[in-house]
Amino acid sequence: MRRYRYLAFILFVLMIAVPYITVFIFGGGRKTAPHTDDPVRNEIFDMEISLYRTKTKKVETMSCYDYICAVVAGEMQANYDEEALKAQTVAAFTYMVNKMNYVKQNPDSDIGHNGAYVCDDYTHCKAYLEKQDALKKWGDEWYEKYYPNIENAVKESLGKIITYDGSPINAVFHAVSNGKTCSAYEVWGTDVPYLQSVDCEADKTANDYESKVSFTHEQFSDILYEELGVVLPNDYKTWLGEIKTCDSGMVSEIVIADTAYAGTHIRKMFSLRSASFDMEVTETGVNFTVRGYGHGVGMSQYGANEMAKKGSTYEEILKHFYKDTKIEDYKI
Ligand SMILES: [Zn+2]
């Protein structure tokens, strides 16, 4: 009899323990998303996202909540105000939804992701900084102090989406504008009604607002030769021609030794922080004075934080940078 009791006990323990252990080892990974009182939002938090990792060349899946937390951690300074972090959350989610819809609607098209919705390359999609990498990059103190702010912002705003004319927008953003954001037309040559130039005077107060980059005459001409095969005349005084700027102050066109270049092209060739710059050629070399950081289109993250510090909500911030848009509930 005692033996039966003992066997029954073992069986009981196994019945309880095995499912727990199985879930813990195999199934628990994705269930990290926090739950709200709203079942619709919970579904969005748990939505499965596929991400192409550029280092391992593998597609990983994770919950939408985990993905967006890692994007906000990778894209925005974690010590920014909570309303700015929420604006970043909604912009990142809107961007992701656009990519996801595209991949779902065009299953045969190759956007370089091996079928995943997004990748972790910030120059192609969005930066992605997982918890353990954030801890390594930021250190214990910064991580413990600021990572919870990101999670709180995501918990409170994930599920909202920015729309124009009923469709999710292309929610692009940059670090610091030159004091005015650029329109999509100025930078990419395509007019987008909600990506127009807007004032962002506060950006001029950013610590890294202005940057200076200098090249010797030789370095400058070598870069033009290596990139485009252009040979500059010996007399450096003839190099610099007319500089044209757009309404936002970005260089639209600059003439160097009788050839016109787009400001964005010069930015790329000389690794300038933005295409809003002055250039001078002196006896000793070529000097660039650059204003702002990034392509300048859409939301300025620094500007978003300044607005948040002055009391703007994330909805007000987003509506300032993305003209005539609405902030709506996302429907799966
Ligand atoms: Zn990508």
N-C termini distance = 57 Å
Ligand kinds: zinc ion
Q: Looking across the biggest beta sheet, what order are the strands in? A: 2-1-3
Tell me the domain tally: 3
Shape: elongated
Task: Give me the strand/helix succession.
Answer: HHEEHHEHHEEEHEHEEEHEEEHHE
Structural class, by secondary structure, is alpha+beta
Count of alpha/pi helices: 11
Task: Describe this protein's structure.
The protein has 332 residues and is of the alpha+beta class. It has three domains: 1-30; 39-168, no CATH class; 210-291, no CATH class. Helices cover 41% and strands 19% of the residues. It contains eleven helices and 14 strands. The protein has helices at residues 2-27, 39-46, 64-75, 82-105, 131-138, 140-157, 184-188, 217-228, 263-269, 301-309, 314-321, and strands spanning 48-53, 58-63, 118-119, 160-164, 167-168, 173-174, 210-215, 240-245, 251-256, 259-262, 277-281, 286-291, 299-300, 326-329. The protein has a three-stranded mixed sheet. Strands 5-4-14 form a three-stranded antiparallel sheet. Strand 11 and strand 12 (286-291) form a beta hairpin. The longest helix is centred in the N-terminal third of the chain and has 26 residues, at 2-27. Zinc ion (ZN) is lined by residues 113, 118-119, 121, 124-125.
